[in-house]
Amino acid sequence: MNLLESCIHRPVVIIMCLIFVSYQKNPDYPLIIAANRDEYYARPTACAGFWQRYPDVLAGMDLQHQGTWLGITRTGRLSFITNYRNPALNNESARSRGELTRDYLTGEEPAALYMQKVLDMRRQYNGFNLVAGDLANLYYCASELDEVRHIAPGNYGLSNGLLDSPWPKVVIGKQQFIECIKNKPDSQCLMAILADQTKAGLDQLPETGVGLELEHTLSSRFISTPLYGTRSSTLITVDSNYNVHFIEKNHAVAGQQEITREYHFKLEKTP
């Protein structure tokens, strides 16, 4: 039995994502996001699109629980989530974390109020990092923190520790991300950052309770194993005229074909 097979009965240990964000830092592009979603290949997923029931929402969908990991709406609501990796606290009966992102995107509640409610009920979920808001105000809530944080303008990296935890894939990837967006966001450059399969040195790995071998397997930005890996890479930019460009590349894994989808639209509601 290989390493991933040994973890199949406790998948929360390794499900993860990686997200780089530039928020209100570039005057021409107040929002730039580059993100990988890592997941078991067998988990049913819908490619990004505008949802039939909520036509303002643009996001992929986890068909197992009808949640999502990343999305934006025509009215400018934005949310994304990663798992906080701590297998010792795993609760197999916990609610699906994807509903936290989904419920913000499909709702109308102000972000600050919504995030406070999430904070109050965070123990119903396994560990998470949630970001929600819009171009005017963005908030961060984590299962391991006792407060909701207002995100200041800046560049950020998020994996499966807390926001900007100094994991090698976050630190090095963030440096490259900042270089890619120094002038105008370069989609080819950003996709190359997300596609990097370089693993960290053994002496650089975080200790999250999954063992050295698995930490090493998960230390690259793009993950590829027989059962689990990077399922999709997404780029989102919003320019100063509120034009949104959304690209999602679904990778060719487990016999599936590579699919790339692009969407362009202008925000209907601006700050």
What portion of residues is helical?
A: 10-25%
Counted up, domains total 1
Order of helices and strands: HEEEEEEHHEEEEHHHEEE
CATH architecture: 4-Layer Sandwich
Structural class: alpha+beta
The mean pLDDT is: 93
Number of strand elements: 13
Explained architecture:
This protein is an alpha+beta fold and 271 residues long. The chain has one domain (3-266): 4-Layer Sandwich (Penicillin V Acylase, Chain A). It contains six helices and 13 strands. The strands form two sheets. A seven-stranded antiparallel sheet has the order 3-4-5-6-7-8-9, with helices on one face. Strands 10-1-2-11-12-13 form a six-stranded antiparallel sheet, covered by helices on one side. The chain is globular. The termini are far apart. Mean pLDDT is 93; it is low at 1-14.
Q: What's this, in brief?
A:
This protein is of the alpha+beta class and 271 residues long. The protein has helices spanning 3-6, 98-106, 111-120, 168-180, 187-194, 212-217; strands at 16-26, 29-40, 45-50, 57-62, 70-73, 78-83, 128-133, 138-142, 149-150, 154-158, 228-238, 243-250, 259-266. The chain has a single domain (3-266), classed as Penicillin V Acylase, Chain A (4-Layer Sandwich), CATH 3.60.60.
Q: How would the blueprint of this fold be written?
A:
Blueprint: H1 3-6, E1 16-26, E2 29-40, E3 45-50, E4 57-62, E5 70-73, E6 78-83, H2 98-106, H3 111-120, E7 128-133, E8 138-142, E9 149-150, E10 154-158, H4 168-180, H5 187-194, H6 212-217, E11 228-238, E12 243-250, E13 259-266
Antiparallel strand pairs: 1-2, 1-10, 2-11, 3-4, 4-5, 5-6, 6-7, 7-8, 8-9, 11-12, 12-13
